[in-house]
TrEMBL record:
Signal peptide: none
Compositional bias of kind Basic and acidic residues: 724-733
Domain of life the protein comes from: Bacteria
UniProt xrefs under InterPro entries: DUF5682 (IPR043737), LolB (IPR050458)
Protein name: DUF5682 family protein
Chain segments carrying region Disordered: 724-743
Amino acid sequence: MNGVQAQGAGELLLLGVRHHGPGSARAVRAALEASRPGVVLIEGPPEADPLIPLAAAEDMRPPVALLAHAVDEPGRSAFWPLAAFSPEWVALRWALEHGVPARFIDLPATHTLAWERDEEDEEKPGEDAPDEDVRIDPLGVLADTAGYDDAERWWEDVVEHRGAGKGDALAPFTALEEAMTALRETYGSGGHGRDRIREAHMRLRIRDARREFGGGVAVVCGAWHVPALRRRTGVTADRALLKGLPRVKTDVTWVPWTHRRLSRAGGYGAGIASPGWYAHLFAAPDRPVERWLTKVAGLLRAEDQPVSPGHVIEAVRLAETLAALRGRPLPGLGEATDAVRAVMCEGSDVPLALVRDRLVVGDVLGEVPDTVPAVPLQRDLERTQRRLRLGPEADERELDLDLREETGAERSRLLHRLRLLGIDWGRPAAPRSGTGTFRETWRLRWEPELAVRTAEAGVWGTTVPAAATAKAEADAVAARGLADVTALAEHCLLAALPDALPVVMRVLADRAALDTDVAHLAQALPALVRSLRYGDVRGTGTAALAEVAAGLAERVFVGLPPACAGLDADAAEEMRGHVDAVHGALGLLGDVPAARDGRLRARWRAVLRTLSARGTVPGVLRGRAVRLLLDEGELAQDEAARLMGLVLSPGTPPADAAAWIEGFVGGSGGGLLLVHDERLFGLVDRWLTAVPAEAFTDVLPLLRRTFSAYEPGVRRTLGELVRRGPGRHDRTDTVAAGAPGFGPGVDESRADAVLPVLRLLLGPDGDEETHGERMEVRR
C-alpha cells in the first residue's frame, strides 16, 4: 500500500518535506486539504505539545522557535525554528484552524539535550551502522545526480517552479519518497547515526496515534525519514533502541526567531541561504519574479539609487531570458540577482550587497504572546523593555543616551546590567559627537540566542537588578586578578548596583593588599578612577572607592621605580603603557577628596623625576618620564633640551638613544613638540645624522614606528624643517665649537653629576677636598 495515496479510513499519510521549503509548505497545505486527516503528527519535541494552542494566538507571528533547555543547566539548549513558509508551521496552523489534534513526535528534548555533541559518542554501542563514515546531504546528492552544482537551484527547479500542490496534491510527496528510498538503500543512515533512534521513537508515536484515533493519521517530517517510517519494524526492536537513553529535566517555550538566524548553519533544520527570498515565494500569489524585482527597486530608490519602472521592466525581461538560456522552467534567485546587478546596479556589487542583506536574507523578527512560559527574569526584562520603550529589534541600530535624563540613565543601567549577566543585547560604541561622560552610544541587536542567555541568567535572581547584583558578587569572589575586580567595580557603578559594591570593595581591598605586582596595581588604578568619575555622573556614592584608589596610587608610587629597572624592550614598552595610564588616571583623580590637597600629584611628579634620572631604567621609560614632566609644566624647555642632549651624546649606544626618543616624542603631541621647539628637533636631527652606518639599521625600525604615528600634516612640517635645516636662525647656542659632542666651555652642572661616583670610588676624606675634586674634574 502506498501511504501517500488518497487517504481512506486507517490510511497513514507520510508527507516528506524540506524544512523551511515554501514549495513543501504549499504542498503540505494542499495535501491536508485533500485528505482531511483525523490527527496531524509533526516532527518536533513532544514536550512542546502543551504549547501548540499558542500558535493560533493573534500576537504569535513567525519566525518563531521552540526553545528547549535543561532546567539545571539553561545554557544547554536546542532550538526548533519555524518560519511562515515552514511546512511544519503550515501543518500546525492547518490543524488548529480545522480543530484537528496536532502532536510532536520527534525524540524528546530530555534525551536530545543529554547527548554529547559528538555523534560518534552519542550512538548506542553494538548498532549496525552501514556506511556510517559517509555523511551526506540528501538534496546535494539528488542535485548532483541531476547534473546540478547547486542544491538550492535544483530544489527551485523541481519543486518551487513546478507548482507543487497543484493538480494531484500528493504527487510531490510520492516522487520525493521514491528518491529518498533510493538514497537510504544506498547510504543507510547517511552518517546520521542519531536518526535511527529518532525514527524508532517516531514509529512508536505513530502506532500510538493510529490506535487512539483509529486511522486518518498525517505525518509531516523531513523527507529523509519517510523510508524509515514506512519500514515495518517490531515494537520490541524500536523500544530496545530507546532503552537506557540519558535524560535531563527540560523546559520548553516559544521564543522569537529571525530570518537572519535562519540563514546560518546552526539550529534545527536551519541553514537556508535565502530566507527572505523563500518568504517572498511563499507569500506571492502570482508573478513572483515581477513582484520581487519591484520590491528590489523600492529598496534601491529608498537608498537614493536612480531606479525607474523602466529598469524593472528590463530586469524582468533579462531574468526571463537568462532562465531560458540556462534551461530553467522559471527565473530563480540567481537569474533575478544577475538581472538586478546588470540593470539596476550598473554592474556594481555594492548596492547588490544591500539587496542581499535587506531582502534576500532580511531582518524579520518574530513575536510570541505574553502567555508563553518563561522564567521570571525574562518576564521582568520584558516589563522593563516596555516601560523604557526599548523593544528588541532584529536589525542593528544605534542608540544615543543622555545620562542627565532619567530615561537615558535607566536605559543605560538596564543595558549595563544585562552585559554583566552575559546578555549582550547592546554593545558600547564610540559616540558620534562629543566625548563627555554624560553621553553614551550603544549598538543594539536582538539575537534569538539571547533568550537562552536570559534563561541561563535566571539562576541569579527573578529581576534584572537582583540577578545582576548576585552575579557581580559571585564574579568578585571568583575573580583571579586585581584588574578583574576593578573592572567589576567599574561595571557595578555603571549598572547602578549599590548592593553589590560592599562585596566588590571588600574583595578589591583584600586583593590590592596582597598583590605585589606593580604592573597589576598600575593596570587596576585607571579602572578605579574611571569608576569614581562615573559615580559622580550617575550620582553614586564612591567614598570607599576613593580611599582604595588613593591607597592603590601610593603603592604604585613606591613600587614603580624598582619595578622599572632592568626591563627588556618588550617589558619596558608594556610598562610605558602602565605609566601613561597611571598619569592619565591621576589627572582624573584630582577632583576627588583623596587628591584635593595635591599630595598625590606631588608624589607622582617625584616618581617621574626618579625614573627620568635612574640609569638602570630603560630609555623608553626615562624619555617618557621627561616628556610627562614637561607636559605638566614641571620641567623647563631648557632642562628638557639638556636631558635630551645628554642622552644623544656620543657615549650613549644608538639603540638606547632611539628608545629614549621613542619615549619622549612618541604618542599624542610628540610631533607638534618637535615642530614648535626647534632646539629639540635640532638635537634629534644632528644625532640621527651622526649615527654610524652599522648601528643605523638597528635604530631605524624604532624611529620609523615613532614618526609614522604622527598625523600627515605633522610629518609634512617636519620634512620641511629637515629640508631647510632646523634652528638655522640660531645655531650658535646648539652647535659645538670644538670636537663633536663637547661644548665651548665648562658645564658645572655636568661636572657636579659625577661627584657622588668619585666619592664612592675614592672615599670621603673631608670637606676640604671637595673643592679640589671639583676643580680637578673641571680641568
